[in-house]
Amino acid sequence: MVEASEDFFENQAHVYSMTALTAIIETMKDDNNAYDSKNEDWALVPIVEVPYGFISVDIKPLNAKIAINGMANSDEELATRYLNACTTIANETEADSLECEVVKDYIDADTEVSYGGAEGVTYERNGVLFRTKNKPLSSLYELRMLMNDNEQFNTVKDYLTVYSPEKAININFVSALTLKAFVPEIEDYADEIVDYAKTQEYKDPSNIKEAVDIPQDIYLKILPFLTVKSTLFYVKTEVTLNDKPRYYHALIQKDGTTAEVVNFLAGLNGQYY
After folding, report:
1. CA 60, 236, 130, 111: dihedral to nearest 10 degrees?
2. Model confidence at 3, in pLDDT bands (50, 70, 90)?
């Protein structure tokens, strides 16, 4: 019997990852309800055994996290909300290397130095030089380079994203800390709101009134920042063949009953978006 080559496993892993993506997209096209939750068929993909190994898929809507590029939003009030959310994440996770004002100056278009920020800086990481970008981050790995602390980056990566077309957070997927950071008006209710989603589906943002007794004035104020729908999903696929894992990262755009891959790459075991 001829032993399978490394090229065979590499090619087969790629085929499996694309097959998994195709299946997810077809399942998303069949999803015609008015909300996205953890109980959707596309969100419940099991580990699949294949010859020589297995396939594992993790799917997260990106508006369950804080879009860190929002700190450069042209709406100053909204930009401040993103900056404060970033600062809260840094403080609560004790990630001193996440200097949110520095990141803000790195991504915003102007050259004005923010309080606690830095413009026109040359950074050096592992012998690589790069300067203040004055453009949005393209991946979380760029944030990791800015932080220059892998351990602390790993504590914040699950709360932050670089892509999110919506300013509203999907309360079916959000973590309590993310909700507290981005919508501090409901900090006292965040744990209960998130706990509700563990056993129930939010089919409309108004359903938070079933989870908590929230004053009407606060409810009306925070409603623009809450949603139950998502349009951009991060799909991380692990294909382990012959005991060697390979990782693939994709972004899927979903609009009603249409869905398509808008970004795909083979990479390392980490959070790219």
Report:
1. -20
2. low
